[in-house]
Amino acid sequence: MSTTSPSFSPRTIALGSWVRIGLIATVTAIVAVLAAQLLATRLWPEIVLFKPLDSYARSALFVIVPGIGATGLFAWLAQRSRQADTQFLRIAVVVLLVSIVPDYLLPVEHKTILASTVAAFLHVVAGIVIIAALTNGYRRMTGSGNR
Predict the structure, then answer these.
(1) Distance CA 132, CA 128 (A)
(2) Would you say 124 and 96 are in contact if contact means Cβ atoms under 8 Å apart?
């Protein structure tokens, strides 16, 4: 996986631009996750007994952390690769899939298949929103939106 070549010239994107698209991605993902969590807890009230689903603040935190991490990773890749968006997508999908595993495997009180699946679904919601927002923002910033 060669990420640089002698003719590669990284596209310089200002730190402020990365902060802006990272904030947009993260805030949008928080709204989507909290809306999905609210809907799920209204449909299946018993799932709030499962610790990962009993707090909206915790859910927001668990979106903020990957939002910051994903933005930092993408910015780092953009400085080192001419295919940063493709590489970011591959890494992000793997991380997203791995993030779902603990929802099913960790011994948490009141864990059910339904509660674990809702928690995993929230990971997917956050992941899709963050990945899409960062990728679209990057492509707009670099003028590579027709890919």
Answers:
(1) 6
(2) yes
Helix count and strand count (H, E) for the chain? 4, 0
Locus of tokens 């670099």 = 142
Q: Global pTM?
A: 0.87
Among candidate residues 33, 35, 25, the one with its CA nearest the CA of residue 130? 25
Q: How far does Cα 115 stand from its chain's mean position? A: 20
Mean per-residue pLDDT over the chain, rounded: 91
Give the C-alpha separation, 64 to 90, whole Å. 20
Give dist(CA 26, CA 32) in Å, integer.
Answer: 10
User: Could you report the per-residue pLDDT of 23-44, keeping only the tens digit for each?
Assistant: 999 999 999 999 999 999 999 9
- Look at residues 116, 126, 101, 130 and name the one whose alpha carbon lies nearest to residue 52: 116
**Amino acid in position 110:** H
Residue 106's SS3 state is coil
